[in-house]
Write a structure and sequence with these properties.
Layout: E1 9-14, E2 20-24, H1 26-31, H2 34-42, H3 49-59, H4 63-74, E3 81-85, H5 87-97
Helix pairs in contact: 3-4
């Protein structure tokens, strides 16, 4: 009995942990090129520029992440953010939707 993949979990949080948002990043994977996904995998699925692109894309679809970016950009002191994608979820999605990868 196999279970169908439900989504690709990802987490986006500010460096100061004020915002900590869990999100389904499947929409990013659906529109991403194979090269973008390879770059994400090469950086360990998070906490690097390829993962930032996931968070930035998801901000257009998720109000919490949009607010996170507003917080990061309007603070008096610079605050960064990190995004991490669940590797197991991503690999399961790839196996089902892009088996050539």
């Amino acid at each position: 009995m196999s279970t169908k993949q439900e989504g690709i979990r990802a987490n986006v949080h500010t460096d100061d942990q004020y915002y900590d948002v869990n999100v389904d990043a499947t929409a990013w994977f659906e529109q991403a090129s194979d090269q973008e996904i390879v770059e994400l995998a090469d950086c360990g699925w998070g906490e690097d520029y390829p993962a930032d692109a996931v968070a930035e894309f998801m901000a257009d679809q998720n109000q919490e992440i949009e607010r996170l970016f507003e917080y990061v950009s309007h603070g008096k002191d610079p605050i960064g953010f990190e995004c991490s994608v669940n590797e197991r979820d991503a690999r399961a999605w790839l196996k089902e939707h892009r088996p050539q990868m």
